[in-house]
Write a structure and sequence with these properties.
Four Helix Bundle (Hemerythrin (Met), subunit A), mainly alpha, 5 helices, single chain
């Protein structure tokens, strides 16, 4: 049995980390650090997804397991639009390319597309969390 209060606090913490990471992604973009923007954009959404999983006391060590579980239990189940799953997959793929491909040159267009995915997903997850009794400060 899991502690609902503790799960809610973890969820809230992870979502705040997602928002902070999104702000970092925007700063990277604004300063021309497109490779870092791609990385931070992925992590912003990854932390969002983990905020949702925290409500069920579910977590995984590997990113691919977090993503697979979220897609199966939340996207395929209709809690989130399929577009969320598609964008999450693109975020993950681009992050892996930018982090592990030595010759990857990140463009402003690619980085901007990643930011737009965060801007699409972040509010949907925040709404979901609020519907599940996670309260956020209005700042």
């Amino acid at each position: 049995m899991h502690d609902i209060g503790k799960d809610a606090e973890l969820s809230k913490y992870r979502f705040s980390l997602a928002e902070e990471t999104y702000r970092s992604a925007k700063m990277c973009f604004d300063n021309g650090f497109y490779r870092d923007c791609i990385n931070r954009s992925y992590y912003a959404v990854f932390y969002c997804v983990r905020a949702v999983l925290a409500l069920e006391s579910v977590d995984f060590k590997r990113h691919k397991d977090v993503v697979a579980y979220f897609n199966k239990e939340f996207v395929a189940a209709g809690e989130f639009p399929r577009e969320v799953g598609k964008r999450l997959a693109r975020l993950k793929t681009k992050r892996e390319e930018s982090d592990y491909n030595d010759f990857f040159i990140a463009s402003a267009d690619e980085a901007e597309a990643q930011l737009q995915s965060v801007e699409y997903i972040l509010p949907l997850i925040k709404k979901y969390l609020e519907e599940h009794n996670i309260e956020f400060d209005n700042n």
